[in-house]
């Protein structure tokens, strides 16, 4: 029902997601500037995000964190999660009962995960877009990844919402959400441009 990327470039870490579900940004992705980025999707259990970040904060690897999901959640067969710390390889886990096509791709600095997708090519396109956009601003790179996934078929049901989170090691620097829109990725890109636009200060009158 959703496709998501968690990624880092050395200076910043972030997450971006898109779905045919309402308000995907409120329920799927989370970033802790001091720890890393995580996602919980499919039949989403929002509470898994805090548990995953807690494991990373305690020093667990991403793989160890995602493998604890069955301990935390009796509905683990319906959950799909991903985790990416500032250091070390990321990881993902897909429950056996989530809707096909579902799966994940892991690269040295990114995790791509999705379910109820048009096919495996969605994640392949996302991974390719991530590599092709190397050296660009992380927020723009994440948007390019989402666009590539959407162009490859994205969520098999269509489009509705999207979100983008970016953090430095000290703070969240970008938190944008499109909760309900006919073309959420175009709207998210518009908000991204607005976030970078200079603030106009009204001229003083006297």
Automatic annotation (TrEMBL):
Superkingdom classification of source: Bacteria
Xref: InterPro entries: DUF1028, Ntn_hydrolases_N
PANTHER family cross-referenced by the UniProt entry: BLL2871 PROTEIN (PTHR39328)
Name listed for the protein in its UniProt record: Ntn-hydrolase superfamily protein
Organism: Microbacterium trichothecenolyticum (Aureobacterium trichothecenolyticum)
């Amino acid at each position: 029902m959703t496709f998501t990327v968690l990624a880092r470039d050395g200076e910043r870490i972030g997450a971006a997601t898109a779905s045919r579900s309402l308000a995907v940004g409120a329920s799927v992705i989370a970033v802790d500037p001091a720890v890393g980025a995580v996602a919980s999707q499919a039949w989403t259990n929002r509470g898994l995000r805090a548990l995953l970040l807690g494991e990373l904060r305690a020093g667990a690897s991403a793989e160890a964190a995602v493998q604890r999901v069955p301990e935390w959640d009796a509905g683990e067969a319906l959950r799909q999660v991903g985790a990416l710390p500032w250091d070390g390889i990321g990881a993902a886990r897909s429950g056996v009962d989530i809707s096909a096509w579902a799966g994940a791709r892991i690269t040295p600095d990114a995790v791509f995960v999705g379910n109820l997708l048009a096919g495996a090519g969605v994640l392949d396109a996302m991974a390719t877009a991530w590599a092709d956009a190397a050296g660009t601003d992380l927020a723009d790179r994440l948007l390019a990844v989402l666009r590539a996934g959407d162009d490859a078929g994205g969520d098999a049901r269509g489009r509705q919402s999207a979100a983008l989170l970016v953090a430095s090691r000290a703070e969240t620097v970008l938190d944008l959400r499109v909760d309900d829109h006919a073309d959420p990725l175009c709207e998210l890109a518009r908000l991204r441009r607005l976030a970078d636009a200079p603030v106009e200060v009204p001229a003083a009158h006297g």
